[in-house]
Amino acid sequence: KVDFFGSAVVALSQQSEQRVRALLAGGHDIALQALFRSAGLAAATHAIILRALKVWREVANGKRLAGVQEVSWLMLKELGGQSAEGDLAGLVKSIHLDALRENARGHALAIAAA
């Protein structure tokens, strides 16, 4: 997920892959926001992307266990929770609901197999 995002940011920002990867892996918020601006990402997206990046960094460093369901929930909370509106909120809600369904399906299959 981060690799795909990083590749997209490289293509959009015209920054080197090495620089983008370094910023995504450990850059401060201000540097990341400058990168997002250079990639043409709307300012309204910066906070939720930063929230997701922080969680994925913790996962990569072994400090946290999290998947799409938790990350999408945290992104949605950053947007204002379940009452958030707009295209971005709709997209994040859709991703979150898909993750919920997939996790529920996995649990149901595990219970059935037990």
Structure description:
- Helices cover 78% and strands 0% of the residues.
- The protein is globular and about 50 Å long.
- It has helices spanning 2-13, 17-26, 29-38, 43-60, 68-79, 87-113.
- The model has no long low-confidence stretch (mean pLDDT 91).
- With 114 residues, the protein is mainly alpha-helical.
- It folds into two domains: 1-41; 43-114, no CATH class.
- The chain contains six helices and no strands.
Blueprint (SSEs and pairs):
Blueprint: H1 2-13, H2 17-26, H3 29-38, H4 43-60, H5 68-79, H6 87-113
Helix pairs in contact: 1-2, 4-5, 5-6
Quick structural gist:
With 114 residues, this protein is an all-alpha fold.
Describe the structure using short key phrases:
6 helices; globular; 114 residues; 2 domains
Kindly state the mean pLDDT as a whole number? 91
Order of helices and strands: HHHHHH
Number of domain units: 2
Give the distance, in angstroms, between the N- and C-terminal Cα atoms.
31 Å
Secondary structure: number of strands = 0
Which regions have little confidence, pLDDT < 50, spanning 5+ residues? none
Task: Label the overall shape.
Answer: globular
CA gyration radius, whole angstroms: 16 Å
Helix/strand class: mainly alpha
Beta strand %: under 5%
Helix content: over 70%
Largest sheet: none
Number of helices: 6
